[in-house]
Amino acid sequence: MLLVYAGDESVTWRALFASQAPDIACVAWPDAVDPAAVTWIACWNPPEGLFAGFPNLRAVFALGAGVDRLVARTDLAAHVELVRLVDAGMAAQMIEYAQLGVLLWQRRCLDYRAQQLQAVWRKLPPIARGETRVGVLGLGAMGGAVAAALAQAGYRVWGWSRRARQIDGVRCLHEASGLTELLGETDVLVNILPSTMATRGLLDRSHLAQLPAGALVVNAARGDQLDAAALLDLLDSGHLGGALLDVFATEPLPTDSPLWLHPRIVITPHVAASTLSGPAVAQVVDNLRRAHSGGPMSGVVDRSTGY
Ligand code: OXD
User: Which of 125, 133, 288, 301 would be a feasible disulfide site paired with 82, CB 3.0-4.6 Å?
Assistant: First the structure.
């Protein structure tokens, strides 16, 4: 039996599962249910301890792409598989968000906004796509799609990932030396890395300072990967040109955060790539069917690496 936990929306999600897969028994938290009958849980932001109540749990499906809050949970036994969404309609949204960051830089939107606030009408030299260097951190289902789309659109794209990758038109790098090389040549840095032990705090002062003068940082992954104080210092000193931020160490971003009113920062409330319920349910159902027939599921997380 599948149990769905999505806070106040648990019942809505259960109805979606019921309509896409009426043959799969499904309940919504907190329906009364025999805990021993629950073998699968599909969830978003489940409360601590939830998993411990189900002795026959076989897998937990995250209704999102990032599983950083789930991998370290002590109520998730080691034998229970953790499965994340792979793309499920989020890559296309992430491409749009990365394009937004690239255009903020390439079309000099933050410079023009500064001029606008002073009623200044001055044309700045245009920047061509081919002169715009984009560095994409993370080349998985979303990062890889972003890098490929930007390369196809005519930008100069570098990509960095833990493992070596190959993507048409993208200069793919890995390891620490690859990151240094990428940062030194990047006008727009797009972070789409999963948040893991290896990537938390990665965008620290020393790495941000390696970006060329005027560069723009897009963070669409997790707030714990970016040192916001260092970002602010580097923006205020004029070294960095701007930032497009979707994720924060504390969400919602506290109202007194200096990030809110900074003239060179654009903020969105964790909407870069939202879970789309239709494709998400379809992916979980597909995995359940594979599991029932003994096949491998897609999106199974390696809990030692965290993604
Ligand atoms: C996700 C997210 O992990 O929306 O899917 O952040």
Answer: 301
pLDDT in tens, 68-90: 999 989 999 999 999 999 999 99
- In this structure, the number of other CB atoms found within 10 A of the CB of residue 36 comes to 10
User: 90 C-alpha to center of ligand 1: Å?
Assistant: 9
Which amino acids are annotated catalytic? 222, 270
Element of type H or E holding 236: helix 228-236
Counting Cα atoms < 13 Å in the Cβ hemisphere of 96 gives 8
Do 17 and 26 touch, CB atoms closer than 8 A? yes
Q: How far apart are CA 34 and CA 191, in angstroms?
A: 43
Atom of ligand 1 nearest to the CA of 90: 5
Please indicate whether residue 65, judged by its CB atom, sits closer than 6 Å to ligand 1: yes
pLDDT tens digits, residue range 54-67?
A: 999 999 999 999 99
Render pLDDT for 121-157 as a digit per residue (tens, 0 to 9): 999 999 999 999 999 999 999 999 999 999 999 999 9
Query: What's the whole-model pTM score?
Result: 0.96
Position 107, amino acid: R
